[in-house]
Amino acid sequence: xxxxxxxxxxxxxxxxVVDTEADVTSLLQSRDDEVLDASNARVKGxxxxxxxxxxxxxxxxxxVTMPSTRSLTPVDxxxxxxxxxxxxxxxxQTDIKDDERVVAIALSDDTISLxxxxxxxxxxxxxxxxxxxxxxxxxxxxxxxxxxxxxxxxYEQHKHESVDPRxxxxxxxxxxxxxxxxx
Length: 183
What we know:
Blueprint: E1 2-4, H1 5-10, E2 16-22, H2 25-31, E3 37-38, E4 41-50, E5 53-67, E6 74-88, E7 103-106, E8 111-113, H3 114-125, H4 133-138, E9 143-144, E10 147-148, H5 152-161, H6 168-182
Parallel strand pairs: 6-7
Antiparallel strand pairs: 1-8, 2-4, 3-5, 4-5, 5-6, 9-10
């Protein structure tokens, strides 16, 4: 689904209500190799033409299937997020000032594509860490022969606790000097 700024300008009296579902699975997969599947994106919102710009405000709900970041097992990632964007047509000038929640985007032409908006925002809202329910509840990290995955906190703690074996001899050096000084 797409609109031109001119089409929205002619209907500028009232906001255009958007209440639709969009299948963006193939677009998501072409932009991110980790996307295995996705449900249709449910979009509810509105488009409003104002002074050569178009304000798009909507709520989006979608389930994206991606591999777990620990085991690569497919995980359904439910997303619900808001889109607050203002699109500026080429050569448009306006005095409109939005709050910090509204993202300003310059259009390369005067076409607004709902599918592209959705893909950009879905990819921006995907979590970096995705775990199966079992992985979340167990808290166990993967390990193998002579290796173990660990969280950053565990790594920092391990780094402070472990001593380089070459320097382990020096650990006793100061205790033996202190004992000699006490004599």
